[in-house]
Predict the 3D structure of the following.
Amino acid sequence: MLKVAVKKLPKSEVEIEGELEPEIFESYFAKALKKIGETLKLDGFRKGKVPENVLLSKVPESRILEEMAELALAEHYPKMLEGEQMKGLDVIGRPEVSIIKLARKNPLGFKIRAAILPAIKLPDYKGIAKKIISGMTDAEKNVAVTDEDLESTIMDIRKSRAPKIHMADVSVDDSTPPKPSPEGRASSPSEKAGDEVKSELPEFNDEFVRTLGPFKDVADFRAKLKENIKLEKENQLKEKTRLKIIEKIIDESALEVPEILIGIELDKILYRMESDITQMGLKFEDYLKHLSKTKDDLRKEFRKDAEKKAKLALILNEIAKAEKMVADPEQVAKEVAAILEHYKDADPERARMHAENVLTNEKIFQFLESQ
């Protein structure tokens, strides 16, 4: 039997405190041991084939107890949410779980803090979208590709493909003062006085454009490049318009954002930041030292951004409910298949939730743009 007490907390959160009876908690012992054994690597045994008596001698009891608690709460948490005490409370996001009693043949004591859907007072979002779109000037809507756009992009491509030629020991007139190095550019050790680095632009001809991709000739390349620049300009305009609309809707909405949701968004921001730094071949700890900051400092800095992201998610969810919008199941299935193909270890359920969220949000933005 499961005994729980539910307490409402400020800022749209609840605390669920309870105990799982000893007999029920103990029933997870074999399952927990089996699960640990499936991932444990031991010399002389194949993964998942370690005998129970060997597992018991090698795995600390505390590790088994933690796994038991995780399995037990994963199964019983949804039942708690369906209980009488949780009626009318719509729990959202990941809960924060604290184990307060953990021992064999004893009750499992726990506290769970969870966010609940706050009351959201939406503004006239359709009116806001209509006003912003109708108020756009012809200059803002203009996505024409000029000759200057085209030539500038072609020059950038040629520069990116230019071979660098190092000219050493070039004779320099002593009466000529040395040219200052460009701002922000550090000289390499090989660049001695009198050295010069030149780059020779490749000729823009049929042969050159064929090295860039499946282009027949210069005319074909120019036509396709013009289409790409136009598409990029259209996307930039769309993103700019969407940002204006949603910023205004956020500003005029009234809601209290649960602290847990802000924390989740902060975790995402820092995770992405750490991933980017690691991909650059740097250690995140070294990067923080260079900035003379801690992770807590960054969390304080990014708090407003995280709060805004959490607000946006809640507002879009509320608009979807008001307009009865759901993602197309076929599109969701395709998106999930693509995610699982690209990320082999992804959790299918989380991939489905992500796909539904992205596709529903796209529907909402298209709906706002059509006003």
